[in-house]
Amino acid sequence: MIASGRSRLRLRRSINSGMLVLTAVCTLLVVAPLLWILGYVVREGLPALSPEFFTSLPTPVGVAGGGIANALVGSLMTVGLATIIAGPIGILAGMYAASHAESPLGTAIRFSTDIISGVPSIVIGIFAYTIVVLPQRHFSAFSGAVALSFIMLPTIIRTTEEMVRLVPTSLREGALALGAAEWKTSFSVMLPAALNGLLTGVMLAVARAAGEAAPMLFTAFGNPFMNGRFDQPTATLPHLIYVYAVSPYEDWHAKAWATALVLITLVLVLNVTARLFVWWRARKIGALR
Amino acid sequence: MTSGNPTASPSANTRVPWFRRVWAHGDRLYQILLLLASAAVVVLVCAVAYELWANSALSRLAFGWRFLVTTAWDPALTKTFGALPFILGTLITSAIALIVAVPLGVGTAIFLAEVSPDWLSRPLGFLAELLAAVPSVVYGLWGLFVFIPAFVRPLAKMLERGLGFLPLFDGPVYGPSRLAAGLVLAIMVFPTITAVSRDVFRAIPGGQREAAMAMGATRWEMIWKVLIPYGTSGFLGAIILGLGRALGETIAVTMVIGNNLDLTASLLHPGYTMASIIANEFTEATFDLYVHALIEIGLILFGMTLLINLVARLLIWRVSLRSRTEVRA
Fold it and tell me: Chain centroid to CA A17: how far?
């Protein structure tokens, strides 16, 4: 009895260590693609980077040189305008959801936010196409910005709601007790206290929007030239990568890698900064309490 | 909110600068602003549904429900459209993604939440989250030029040699294929499944673990026989959220699936998904019925992801209710 009990225990223990090691292997397999992707993008993209790459327009296939100035400006325009549209709406809706958490509209906001964040970006692209491109009868940077603003909304609303909730209620009560109006309390006490958090949300949203290629296919459409106009089609970084990658030309493939390096650097820097902000804020609030 | 100087006469009121007068109504304005922004968000969801519905009218009238079950996609001659190949393509690639990503993702979540020490799980969790930040088009680029030649093609050749007698693994092997799309999707849904399941593990009360360990369970037995049954609906929620992401993923899939209309059973052949046909043909659609057929595919996709997200939220919400802890999804 005792002997068989011991061997059973040994079996259970070896299953235990075997399975725990297996979970570590899983983790390695999940993290490996990230390193593989980053390594390749840097290796393939770095040689093609040069100052001219950022400042010149694309050249026809076979002509040396050429860059991504048009896509850089186009991404800046579309993402910038999208932030201007989605930022205020998202922050206000997030503040409402935080302060009226139990009300029907508060619940409706949270519910809608969940739904919007689950809608595929290509479907958002179709939506922007039907409400902006169809009536105007032409592709434009503006329609791209509209699509991106819908994609940014859920992230901004959620982080705003979470961050405003983190602000200690004593701050709010203190301001109200001093006779400040509700709106003044919100804008001069709550918002500054939650500012890092709001910036985090906006940064994460910008990072996501900057990488979206699918909705740009039939909104911003792409453009080999640069015009800086919102009513004209424009190239964007992710769309340019797509176009270059599926083309049959070696030269364009090299440029796709270089553009991917630029885009991924931008997106990762935004993400890491956003996380540092959260960490810094958590420390500050910890010190307050 | 009362405002201004209560003793001021009405004539003095005219000398108050305009912004002061507006400020006096600050609270009401602020409430209106809040309400407008909040209503805009809610209206947006309805507007998406309405626009997709209204702009697919031609196709819905012409084909009715048959659109869902017919395979013809002929914009050139007969102008008939059926969405079945794309619906199947989406389901097949998402299924491959889940079969690969669920064990690996949940395994990773177990490692991060229950096994590894804090100093290790923090940076690893951070890396897994960065995986979610990589733009979809970069996955596509990497998939097309690195992952397919280095991994998918050798794997497909092996499958064809070993299991080629099954229609599922019928040759020849090209490279871009449903298998390639499914594997790239698996990598893209890792972060979702890992992050949500990790939060589910963290939401399970410590008493459950202590009780299991006190009864003499090994750590694995505690995880397998106590924690996983306890969080089942949460893990289902994580899987379904991952599925939602896989169904709608567009650019990366369009780049690695090969975009082929032939309806074969083989995973090793190129195919199409709902998202990738829209991405590929939308700007080439030359007549209204064609555009409406593509938008109707978008409508189906919207409906599918809507349903899936609702179910996932419901499941995760149930777990967080049970353990009275917020679960971030």
Answer: 39
Q: What is the DSSP string of B17-73?
A: -HHHHHHHTHHHHHHHHHHHHHHHHHHHHHHHHHHHHHTTHHHHHHHGGGGGT---E
Query: Comparing C-alpha atoms, which of A243, A197, A227 is closest to residue B141?
Result: A243
pLDDT tens per residue, range A103-136:
888 888 888 888 888 899 999 999 999 998 888 8
Question: Are the CB atoms for B71 and B85 separated by under 8 Å?
Answer: yes
CB contact under 8 A, A115 and B112: no
**Pairwise CA distance, residues A161 & A163, whole Å:** 6
Distance of CA B267 to the CA centre of its chain: 22
Nearest CA in chain A to B54: A130
Q: Which of A36, A126, A211 comes nearest B52 by C-beta?
A: A126
Indicate yes or no: CB of B38 within 8 angstroms of CB of A26. no
| pTM for the model | 0.87
Look at residue A101 and give its three-state secondary structure.
coil
Q: Which two tokens stand for residue A135?
A: 């009536």
Amino acid code (one letter) for B118? D
By C-alpha distance, the chain B residue nearest A18 is B220
Which residues of chain A neighbour B116 with C-beta distances below 8 Å? Answer: 24, 27
CA A217, A221, A222 angle in degrees (round to 5)? 115
Answer whether the bond into residue B154 is a cis peptide, omega within 30°.
no
Report CB contact under 8 Å: B130, A271. Answer: yes
Closest C-alpha to B277, from B303, B298, B247: B298
CA B269-B271-B273 angle, 5° bins: 150
Q: Element (H or E) spanning A221, and its range? A: none
Among B42, B44, B142, whose Cβ lies nearest the Cβ of A40?
Answer: B142
Contacts of A84 (CB under 8 A, 6+ apart): none
Q: What is the ipTM of this complex?
A: 0.88
What is the per-residue pLDDT across B254-291, written as a single tens digit (0 to 9) for each? 999 888 887 777 888 888 889 998 988 888 888 888 88
